[in-house]
């Protein structure tokens, strides 16, 4: 039987957003109000859709985007690992009612499609079953920091241990605090994006980095590997801790030091700090585009074989309008085309 007093609220104000997350407790940086407002385009609206009964809560953060030249919108997630969060007693009737109210919201707001990256440490598929598809894109690498520090290290590959032994001799790690430190990190990060020929979406603004470092919703640490001899910044990384989850968020390595792999030192430093802080997960992420079979993924897997599934949610709310938009934008769909929503594919080119 469905609990009484069910409703779906649209939260856009920070205090209410924060209150919902704290009541649910299990959330990450990518679910927070501050992260949404650090990353969103000015034309997009960040919302937290909150379904409540007298025994349960489901919260789904999304960005609502206008579809240019039309009266329609679509919804997407921020860059990161997002998806719905829940607390309480989620019975089948509760989930059915949640989906009905969510569907009604999408239709009322003229939303054509919904896309969200999901969180590898949160059970989410039951909340989305029957609404589009959840697709396994690849795996992410988690370091199980509930294990003793020394036990964690025994799981490293021989290659990573060898690099770390050299790095601990040649570099020291400092926490970046100054404007000069942020500028040095940004230069290395952009250099890395150039090297891998990343799309424009990965070239985040200075304001984005500044907002992450200043936020009190989560703890962003800028770790920097400094050459002991020359005082050169060899590598830098943004690590973000929220509750008991740590994310290896973004990083960059000086091209002159790539052969020494100083980024491994920063990961190892954060691993030890997170273990001491009694965190539970340290997510290194996956490969390029979610791949579990490329050099980036293999690098991360040299720290741990605790792989977690990375999934995305794709839902076409209005098939007729969706197909019309694909046709209108002159997009030819191929059998291996995974871009979603397809009518925005030209924006990624």
TrEMBL record:
Transmembrane segments: none annotated. It holds the Pfam family Acetyltransf_6. Gene3D superfamilies: 3.40.630.30. One of its GO terms (molecular function) is transferase activity. The lineage of its organism: Bacteria, Pseudomonadati, Bacteroidota, Flavobacteriia, Flavobacteriales. The keyword Membrane does not apply. Residues 159-287 form the BioF2-like acetyltransferase domain. InterPro entries: Acyl_CoA_acyltransferase (IPR016181), BioF2-like_GNAT_dom (IPR038740), PG_Glycine_Bridge_Synth (IPR050644). Keywords: Transferase. This is GNAT family N-acetyltransferase.
């Amino acid at each position: 039987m469905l609990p009484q007093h069910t409703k779906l609220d649209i939260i856009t104000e920070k205090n209410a957003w924060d209150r919902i997350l704290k009541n649910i407790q299990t959330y990450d940086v990518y679910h927070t109000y501050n992260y949404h407002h650090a990353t969103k385009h000015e034309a997009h609206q960040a919302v937290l859709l909150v379904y409540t009964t007298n025994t349960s809560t489901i919260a789904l953060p999304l960005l609502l985007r206008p579809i240019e030249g039309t009266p329609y919108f679509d919804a997407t997630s921020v860059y990161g690992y997002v998806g719905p969060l829940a607390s309480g007693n989620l019975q089948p009737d509760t989930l059915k009612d949640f989906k009905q109210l969510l569907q009604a919201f999408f239709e009322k707001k003229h939303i054509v499609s919904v896309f969200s990256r999901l969180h590898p440490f949160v059970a989410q598929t039951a909340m989305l079953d029957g609404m589009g598809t959840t697709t396994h894109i690849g795996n992410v690498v988690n370091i199980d920091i509930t294990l003793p520090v020394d036990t964690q290290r025994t799981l490293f590959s021989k290659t990573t241990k060898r690099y770390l032994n050299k790095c601990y001799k040649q570099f020291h790690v400092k926490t970046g605090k100054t404007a000069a430190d942020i500028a040095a990190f940004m230069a290395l990060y952009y250099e890395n994006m150039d090297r891998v020929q990343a799309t424009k979406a990965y070239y985040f603004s200075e304001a984005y980095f500044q907002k992450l470092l200043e936020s009190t919703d989560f703890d962003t640490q800028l770790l920097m590997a400094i050459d002991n001899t020359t005082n050169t910044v060899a590598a830098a990384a943004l690590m973000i801790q929220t509750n008991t989850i740590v994310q290896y968020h973004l990083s960059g390595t000086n091209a002159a030091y790539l052969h020494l792999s100083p980024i491994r030192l920063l990961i190892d430093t954060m691993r030890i700090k997170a273990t001491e802080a009694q965190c539970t997960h340290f997510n290194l992420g996956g490969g390029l585009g979610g791949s579990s079979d490329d050099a980036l993924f293999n690098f991360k897997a040299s720290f741990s074989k605790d792989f977690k599934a990375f999934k995305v949610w794709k839902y076409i709310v209005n098939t007729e309008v969706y197909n019309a938009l694909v046709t209108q934008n002159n997009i030819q769909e191929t059998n291996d085309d995974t871009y979603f929503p397809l009518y925005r594919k030209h924006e990624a080119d």
